[in-house]
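Anyone? Bumping this.
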Amino acid sequence: GAVVSQHPSRVICKSGTSVKIECRSLDFQATTMFWYRQFPKQSLMLMATSNEGSKATYEQGVEKDKFLINHASLTLSTLTVTSAHPEDSSFYICSAQTGTGILQPQHFGDGTRLSIL
Amino acid sequence: DAKTTQPNSMESNEEEPVHLPCNHSTISGTDYIHWYRQLPSQGPEYVIHGLTSNVNNRMASLAIAEDRKSSTLILHRATLRDAAVYYCILRVYHNTDKLIFGTGTRLQVFP
């Protein structure tokens, strides 16, 4: 149980393109989803917390107009990288919790590898 | 945010036990110790968590020092599939749901 699906798994596109990444909780409802970014050989960096039906909370230094997050339902959150440039190339990973609180584990998707040419 | 310190890398042979240490000297009384691991080219997966007492599940055991300033993740018999980066994370009570990842320990398992 507690499967999180991320789509697409890999994207290669030209500079200036906007890219949408979907994160779905397949067998549970997630009031909270999280978006992370991971550069090669580095750890995961939390970008934003996405709450169903409300605006996302962005971490310091993350541009909210650059990384648009929509959490329209209890099973779907999307991250749109607008006008992507080569420096946005990274591994983007989402996660979801089955409930709130620090005792609830986060369930992660398998990530989206974004390459901007 | 409460911080953890882990060795950058460790090695093990298949079928042997592995003890992955984590120091968290600034831990507060209500902070939980969580472990996640990340296999190559995948998202992380939850391993185990604890507060004060040692914990066991099907994946691993977690041994927590009496003063809670350190903990050890124990893989009883390492397999090749256990090769991953292991992250020790303090879930800070006041920050509720956030997971702040450190650099983790890269575990290599040799046949």
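Late reply, but here is one note on the structure posted above: Chain B touches chain A at residues 32, 34, 36, 38, 41-46, 49, 87, 91-93, 96-104 (CB under 8 Å).
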